[in-house]
């Protein structure tokens, strides 16, 4: 069965070992983020990144129209092209797809997103972020059948043709569900879900489906979306999700061997 691997784009992620490992396989879809490049490009263009925390504690990127342009340029442009080129250098034939291409990632624009500011809950103005509602896996299956590796990333598109920013971890979960993937691997810059974020020795090794809600409070900042993605993937029929480090040799194989936090 197909494997879905998502590699993060924040500082501290190791993309090269991930691609080296994946180059030995042929049964996968690669989903990418690119937050570091979005931040770098936004600063260079005078549109620095801004973030907000929702009342539920989820940290999200503010996606006003100006910043959404940066997201598209960085993710669907530079990051995706670089990944496809790097796979080509490893002898892998890959095709880059944003969620807009072929209506791959269909989303609805978030209405009434809220942020906590100085203890008050306020509406997030001009928000062009979205929640994925469906994945059209037709193109992905066609590429896989032809021996090509799909490389997928945000943004997504609404039924009205609006481009919206979506979270890459949750996009990976939706892709895994749509493909009936056996496993979803979310590679990041930490060893897994930690009870104490600054202490790698406090990693949570295994979480069963019944305990998902219990561990969610442990997930701070951006880790919260990874745990939500794991939850959505399992509920959609994915057998196993692993949150693991992208650093070191063979990170995908290591994750599949249980190195990280395993959600079953």
Features:
globular; two-stranded antiparallel sheet; single chain; Carbamate kinase; alpha/beta; 16 strands; 264 residues
At the fourth CATH level, what is the homologous superfamily? Acetylglutamate kinase-like
Mean pLDDT: 93
Number of helices: 8
Quick one: biggest sheet? 8 strands, mixed
Number of domains: 1
Name the beta content range: 25-35%
Main sheet: strand order: 5-10-2-1-13-15-16-14
**Radius of gyration over all CA atoms, rounded:** 17 Å
From the spread of the alpha carbons, the general shape counts as globular
Number of strands: 16
Which residue ranges are poorly predicted, with pLDDT under 50 across at least 5 consecutive positions? none
CATH class: Alpha Beta
String of helices and strands:
EHEHEEHEEEEEHEEEHEEHHEHE
Please give the alpha-carbon distance between the first and last residues: 17 Å
- Helix content estimate: 25-40%
Structural class: alpha/beta
Q: Which CATH architecture is right?
A: 3-Layer(aba) Sandwich
| CATH topology-level name | Carbamate kinase
Gist of the model:
By secondary structure, this protein is of the alpha/beta class.
